[in-house]
TrEMBL record:
Gene3D superfamilies from the UniProt entry: Pre-mRNA processing factor 4 domain (4.10.280.110), YVTN repeat-like/Quinoprotein amine dehydrogenase (2.130.10.10)
Positions annotated as WD repeat: 281-303, 347-388, 389-430, 431-473, 474-511
UniProt keyword annotation of Repeat present: yes
Keyword Repeat carried by entry: yes
Domain (Pre-mRNA processing factor 4 (PRP4)-like) ranges: 89-141
Cellular component terms (Gene Ontology): U4/U6 x U5 tri-snRNP complex
Highest taxon of the lineage: Eukaryota
GO process annotations (BP): mRNA splicing, via spliceosome
Protein name from the UniProt record: Pre-mRNA processing factor 4 (PRP4)-like domain-containing protein
SMART domains in UniProt: SFM, WD40
């Protein structure tokens, strides 16, 4: 072949497939399976299926990649947001913001610019308004804390007059009480021991002296008169009655309340040095009414208004008889000046209703117990809360000052009676007294040598002073004992009950 001959090139034609090969492949596989099945049937041998490992597990590569991608995008977005956050250029304010967020205000080798960048980075993570939210939270907590603290405001002129009068009245009495206590310490130990043993012997032989049905409804309260010759009882029927002691003769019926009477008390000078036609008694009821009574009329001589519609649970006379304290269910207690005929103090401080009140023998302080399970001791000369009693688990239903001036007994719904020391401002002893709530507690008025508690377990119990050991259990009521009192001459103990009776208790030798 010469170079001049023409060379012909043949180009291989390209095969072009239109459409997907999936359908053709599926048809080919189906035809192959059909042929194999027909062959197996012809031979009469069933072919075993191929051993193919089939698993549903698979690596979520795409999901993992998408999560990483999302996290990366979020990080870019956060950095972009951080660059747009405005942070103060004042380094002191930057440190203050870091402190509010709970972050260290300075790191080792960190300058003001680095600190600003760190604050900007933190804000981009927790929110640009985190500082503002933290400040608002701190203000809210401070506000709640302020609500729990005792606050004072300027009172009227009548309050200033009352406080000066109380100071002048209480200081000489406190001096006399301290002198008397010093004289008692000079007594021989044998003499004091013999006196205590004699008192304990009398208490251990206490028994029912007399019993009287007092009303058609439960007897909610009872109290002896200062001369120990009369007993006042209050009932849920709305009636208050005066009985002779110890023969239980009805002397007077006081009509004026229209609902449950919570308490009736004698004026400290009633039946002793006070005339019969002036205020000798005071009572309170569930409708918020407080009434003053004399010994000559069945109707009240005066009403003290200002509590309605809130219930008044207990009340107490100041040792001078000039002031009357009332416990109201609006979480406050009031002090009324009967000479000025006005309310001189409306004291708040409890977070739940105030239930009971007791005045110290000097007249300088008073103690209140509330349904919030707390007690407070108030200085009447300054208005300050000088002691906060926090130990009970449930509501305080009874409170009483010892004649020594510094011991306080509280009766609670948690079935215990606690003894507090005003000098130490702490709880001194806890008496696991009863199996049900304790409704009332009273110290012996002359010397405070023993204590009595009344309970809804239908019993009253006597306890020694100092060691607080049980002496005697007074059982005889068929219902809950709602109130208890000790006569000033130490001859009798009175208990009033839900069973509509009141009973006198005395040593068996007096019968």
């Amino acid at each position: 072949m010469s170079d001049d001959d023409d060379v012909q090139y043949v180009k291989k034609p390209r095969t072009i497939h239109y459409g997907s090969l999936e359908d053709a492949e599926r048809a080919r596989l189906a035809a192959a399976d059909g042929n194999e099945d027909s062959n197996d049937k012809a031979e009469g041998v069933s072919a075993n299926p191929p051993q193919v490992h089939i698993s549903t597990e698979y690596m979520e590569l795409e999901d993992a990649m998408s999560r990483d991608k999302q996290a990366l995008l979020e990080e870019f977005e956060r950095r972009r947001k951080a660059r747009s956050i405005n942070v103060s250029t004042d380094d002191a304010e930057v440190k203050r913001n870091l402190r509010q967020l709970g972050e260290p205000i300075c790191l080792f080798g960190e300058g003001p610019a680095d600190r600003r960048c760190r604050l900007r980075d933190i804000l981009s993570r927790i929110g640009e308004d985190a500082v503002v939210r933290r400040e608002a939270e701190e203000e809210r907590k401070q506000f709640e804390k302020d609500l729990e603290t005792t606050w004072y405001h300027e009172g009227p002129e009548s309050l200033r007059i009352a406080r000066l009068w109380i100071a002048n009245y209480s200081l000489p009495r406190a001096k006399a009480r301290i002198e008397e206590a010093r004289k008692m310490t000079d007594l021989p130990t044998a003499t004091k021991t013999a006196k205590k043993q004699e008192i304990q012997k009398k208490l251990q032989i206490m028994a029912i002296y007399s019993s009287q049905i007092g009303d058609t409804r439960p007897i909610s309260y009872c109290q002896f008169s200062p001369n120990s010759k009369l007993l006042a009882t209050a009932s849920w029927s709305g009636l208050c009655k005066i009985w002779s002691v110890p023969d239980c003769t009805l002397k007077q019926t006081l009509k004026g309340h229209t609902c449950n009477v919570g308490a009736i008390i004698f004026h400290p000078k009633a039946t002793v040095s006070q005339e019969e036609n002036i205020c000798n008694m005071a009572s309170c009821a569930a409708d918020g009414s407080v009434k003053l009574w004399d010994f000559q009329n069945e109707e009240p001589i005066a009403d003290i208004e200002g509590h309605m519609p809130h219930r008044v649970s207990r009340l107490g006379f100041h040792p001078s008889g000039r002031f009357l304290g009332t416990c109201c269910m609006d979480c406050s207690w009031r002090l009324w000046d009967l000479h000025q005929c006005t309310e001189v103090l409306h004291q708040e401080g409890h977070v739940k209703p105030v239930y009971c009140i007791s005045f110290q023998i000097d007249g300088s302080v008073c103690a209140t117990g509330g349904l919030d399970s707390f007690g407070r001791v108030w200085d009447l000369r300054t208005g300050r809360c000088i002691m906060f009693m926090e130990s009970h688990l449930k509501a305080i239903l009874g409170i009483d000052f010892s004649p020594n001036g510094y011991h306080i007994a509280t009766a609670s719904e948690d079935n215990t009676c606690k003894i507090w020391d005003l000098r130490k401002r702490s709880v001194l002893y806890t008496i696991p007294a009863h199996t049900n709530l304790i409704s009332d507690v009273k110290f012996q008025r002359d010397g405070g040598d023993y204590l009595i508690t009344a309970s809804y377990d239908n019993t009253a119990k006597l306890w020694t002073n100092r060691t607080w050991q049980p002496l005697k259990t007074l059982s005889g009521h068929d219902g809950k004992i709602m109130s208890v009192d000790i006569s000033p001459d130490n001859q009798y103990i009175a208990t009033s009950s839900y069973d509509r009776t009141f009973k006198f208790w005395a040593p068996e030798e007096q019968k």
